[in-house]
Fold each of these.
Amino acid sequence: MFFGEFEYKLDEKGRFPLPPAIRPSLKDGLILAPGTGEKCIYAYPLCEWKKLAESLKSTTVAPSKMRRLNRALFALAFDVNLDAQGRLTLPAPLKTYAGVNIEVIVAGVNNYLEIWDKETWESEKKASQEQAWQIIETLEEH
């Protein structure tokens, strides 16, 4: 499980370290994909990515919509590994997609991580915090 918010600056090669506490969860690999509907990068441990892929196979969404979703997730995904110092290099297409400049935020989101440009994250975090109580109330009603 991933949680917390971590702030980093990209080095001259576009790398940043991931928190040491989460690195063991990523030892088998990491899949980076564009956030769906959000200007961020999803970072899934390989085992979680495989679970996501399997769950999508059994969904009852219309085939044309499923093809679009698969293209959005899988065609633009990258299989990456951390270097010996625990650093991650963001692929240029994903870096551009998410508008990542120098300052990045890594946010733990349960079974995956999200990588955001710091400025974009601040706006998203505020919106999420403002809506969280409404979502919780809806969950409590069911």
Amino acid sequence: TAPSAEPPPPGDTAAVINPAQAAAVTTAPPLTVAPPLPKGATQGSGTAGRAGIDPARRAKPDPTKSAPPAAVEPVPAPAEPPEELPAPAPPVLAPITFQGIKVLVRQGGKLREREAVMTLTGSDLAVQSDGKDIVSVPFASIAQAFYSRSKEPKWKGPDGKEQSVSVDLGRMSFFRGERNWLIVTTSAEPIFVRFEGAQMRTALASFEERTGVKVQR
């Protein structure tokens, strides 16, 4: 048998290095000593040395150059007002007629009753007798209207005083009692219309509705 290898002497252990371990050993680079920093400077990034720059050397704004104009936002145009729609046309009212009434007509110097028909349209008041127009006035020309329960028409004038007219009722006028009168005043002579009791309430309500004139009682 071959003789066994003798272990190395104790003093030479550090000199024997395994070749596999020798490859892992690296040599540290030599240390480099940095030069001393200027007085007042601090160590850091590349901008550290700016702390030592004299403020007087910093750039100053050029007074000859004007500042850039400020941005002006456009003013919005005012909103257009909504278009106004035309007012609706008033409804067309069918004419309403009252037959079997009486109207006072001047004959000579007297007022006498005549059979008549009164019609209220959407804009006019018309009274006819025997197919002929006795009077026709637009509603706009009516000044006032009065109801009188009396033998002869009575109403108040512009001064507030009571007025009346004398009616020629014929020979039997003494026996005639109170009647229902509608007196319509205009710039001309008043219009005197007499209704029977059954027609009076409907006639006054229709007159006020069509003409817009309140009947004073």
Amino acid sequence: MLVVAALVIRTRGQDRTGSLAFMVVLLVGSAGVLYVGGVALGLLQQLPVFSTNPVARLRVIVGFAAAVLAAFGLDAVLRPYGARADLTALRKPRARTTLALRAAGGLTVVLVVIYAVLSVRRQTPDPVGLGLQLREGFALAACCALLVVLAWALERRWASTVAAVGIFVLVTVPAIGLARAWWPQNDVELYYQRTATHEFLDTRLDGQRYATVGQVMLPGSSTAYAQRSLGGHAFTTPEWRELMLAADPEMMLTPTYSGISPANRDVALDSGAWTGLASATSSTRPPPVSPASRGMPTRRPPASRWPSARR
């Protein structure tokens, strides 16, 4: 509703027509590609970056554009010209044209939201639960719309403030509840918990890298333990990528996700490609970091619990 308010209600101060138009195009275009697909999606996937990324990541752009437009909408609620000024301005043809364009933009956003909701509804495994959420969402949207209209019609500072606070509460409280239900809550002690394997690596790595196969040790999590791993989830330089592919042609699972494939485990670990890496890093090896210096336990587990590892 704040997005629609940003497009329909005129705001005092600097003209933001250009910024609003850009964000509307970004929002509608991203949502259209994401939820409609078709020819536009096919053309987009031929471009660099988009050709190697899942289209679902466009949700970040949709959320960003919607958030920026919502901020414009909140500003419109706090600083509206008011109903009388807007109705008086409609006597001018240019003002009527501007209002028509803004209304068309707002209607387009509403239609995109409705289409996105219907698209999700067709694919949801729980239509009953989604229906309850939609009814709650429409009720909240109606309340927000009422507050926006009151702020615009009353033309009082206190009315705008009350409307802004009310909209903030109506949006924030359900959002917090949704986030708590969506993201599980765990104790801090369970976050990247240290294991006997990590303690073993602390005593044996001496600044070198360890190699994992497949999803063992959750590639990319080594940063949380201040340890160096061969693979992971990060951008790689062409030289590093070439070295890994020389050892295992299937090591780059995605452009940013790497790890030794189980099928090529023995060949990759015994590959001579790592010889150059060892000689190149021996002179620049960082000093070992002890677990005690990071405030982590240093108790050595029984020998039977030590895993076998290859460096």
Amino acid sequence: MKRIILIAFFGILGGATLLFASLKLYSSIHQPTSIEQQNPNEFQVTGTDSASVIFDDGTEFLTNLYELEFVAQLPTKTKIPYLILTGRQCTMCDANISIYIHSPSDGSMKQSHEQLRYGLPGELYNWEDGELIAKKRAFYGEIFPNNHGVVWYQSELDEKGNWIESTYFAGISGDTLLGSFIEANIDSTLLQVNKKLAFELPGTSQLTEP
């Protein structure tokens, strides 16, 4: 009799163990996959919710941006794609809406004094006297053949009243975001736009930050 009880007791434990293992497996299958564990090519943004970027599998990346808007994503080989975002890192402040380029693989976005940001395209006026001091056009996507990123073609007023033209490119190289001034003609980027490989960001008017 004791032996039968032991066998029955073992059978109950075995069944409980099997049930627990089955529940654990079910949980691991149906639990949302961690954003760091997915194939970079599988990430597609579907929209934003408050300060979060939403991917099509339900995962979210929480930014620290107010008035957040998603623009596009830049392809990578091993990292989560770089997200092109607009917004500001404070509320009730004098900071302009800016462009941010960030991959969730690099962790959380940094605080405002450490996080790299870029100016919006359009016209920039001096907040003190209203003088026009900069004019910019910006494009994103495959800016040049096999080169993805964001490029700014800009003219800025120097201290002598001369308009100085320059081109700045923030591009992806080896899954790293690198930015520098380059020699480039806007016509080469417009060719990419005509092929629907690159796209222009709409311009806006802003005042310089006090």
